[in-house]
Structure formats: C-alpha cells, structure tokens
Hints:
The protein is α+β, with helices and mostly antiparallel strands. The chain contains 1 helix and 6 strands, in the order ββββββα. The protein has one helix spanning about 75-95; strands at about 1-5, 15, 15-20, 25-30, 40-45, 55-65.
Amino acid sequence: MYAGGLFVEDRRRPIAQWFNPALGAAMLVAPETSPEWPVQRFGIFYAPPETGFERVHSSPHEWHPREPRQSPTEQEAFLAAVAEAERFLQAEMSFV
C-alpha cells in the first residue's frame, strides 16, 4: 500500500498498482498533488508500455491534510480511488 522511492523525495505516500504482464501495461492510483498543496488528491493513471502515463478522468478523491481527522481522510480518499480504479478495470474487461 505504501511505496517509497517513487518520487524525487521519499515521502512514503500511498500507491496501488495493477500490472498486466501480457501487455506490459499498468494501472495505478497515486498522489497527483504536491504535499505542499492545501488540498491533496489521488489520481488514477494508465501506464501503457514504454510511453509514460495517461490520467484516467475520475471523481476527485481529495482530503485536507490540515484537518486529518475530518472526513474524507487520506485513507478514505485512497480507498475510494482504489475502488473506482477497480470498477474501471472491470468495465474495461467487458470490452476484451
């Protein structure tokens, strides 16, 4: 759930990833805002083989770090983004 070393500075931020070895592609949920921003947000990204990242448009999965106990919390935002990414993957599989 937490991955270090993926960013310029190791901030131990949450990330989720699904990898398709047959295609060499991945889907991931990762922070898309800098830790300094007053509102933090998780994004859903598609990583096609050897071409970088494409953002998947989704609902905003935000939290306010200055109010860590107020809903939505970082954990709630992360789990909501993971659930939406899973729904996206299930919908995509129906077209295969």
